[in-house]
Amino acid sequence: MIRHSPAPVLERLRSIRDRSIDLVAPLEPEDLMLQGMADASPPKWHLGHTTWFFDTFLLQPNRPNWQPMPECWGVLFNSYYEAAGPRHPRPQRGLLSRPSIAEVMQWRERVDQELQSWLLEGMADQQAQLLELGLQHEQQHQELLLMDLLDGFSRNPLAPSYDNHAPTPPAQGRSGQWLELESGLISIGIEPGDPEFHFDNETPRQRVWLDACALADRLVTNAEFEAFIADGGYRQPQLWMAEGWSLVQENGWSAPRYWRADGMEFSLRGLQPRDAEAPVRHLSWFEADAYARWAGARLPTEAEWEQAARQWPDAADWFDSLWQWTASPYTPYRGFKPAAGAVGEYNGKFMSSQMVLRGSCFLSPPGHSRLSYRNFFGPQCRWQAAGIRLAVDR
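RESULT FIELD:
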């Protein structure tokens, strides 16, 4: 067992856990129960689930004197870990008025105090790695909490604002040029033993052959997507995958998820004028793919995206703007091995019927991005902050 100074980890633990509390500070008590759709979760549930992760996977197995949460709470706050026990149905998380937010906050504080005491005593490397996984997991939920709130608030005719100073995508600073990639053998991903944090789905490092191509140095803008709409993009079945065209017909899709009439767009700041030059956001993979086809281009593969971001790190908005859809299905890298135990269900079990997104977005916590990060959503999902980067063959 190797012991290190606990100070940096203590500070990281406190700052990440405190940020979750800061995110709910602008909310009213009623907002904490808001669940706009089955795929979303209420803010209170996010606070409980991230605490459940530390209680279940770190404290209960390793701290003999730890008094765990009430047994029934595990059912309420387990997300999808079958090996950890039964779960409350996801679409019904908004019905969980109890435990109260006060009880959840008291539990969070108790868990934090125990983790801090353990760090001061000395935590073995294996448990420290699991703690870091829990912190990265909480950062993912901080982003999800905001996206889920946006969805819930968007369904209210009053168009409420979460925070008048909520983040928005940064202005794009590029000119619409192409970043050229030559044909050749490249490497993507990261080795399992790399000291930089990574999720298991980013491993092991892979060799991939790329044919010559080019990626846009900026994301597609609202104005460009509006031209697609004006040209009948949502009315031309030849642009769409069959499943996507069915969704357009069934759901009446005619614009990105949060576009409103008269040039307005719903955001965490409430209704705002739509910026023509801002990157278009909250699109499904099907919409991104249809636009790319209309534009005479395509979506990049995740290997092309990672290589371009590595080769041209300062030439494009790779991070902190929008997650970017790729043409790559979410499948395991060759030699992928999920982590042992229940935490092995974190990523691997979802490697079907999903598409990969790369980068990060304006709602991602600071520092929560890297070249090898593989996000994933179903191709029909459009409530996450996703946009379009085009690619072309050479």
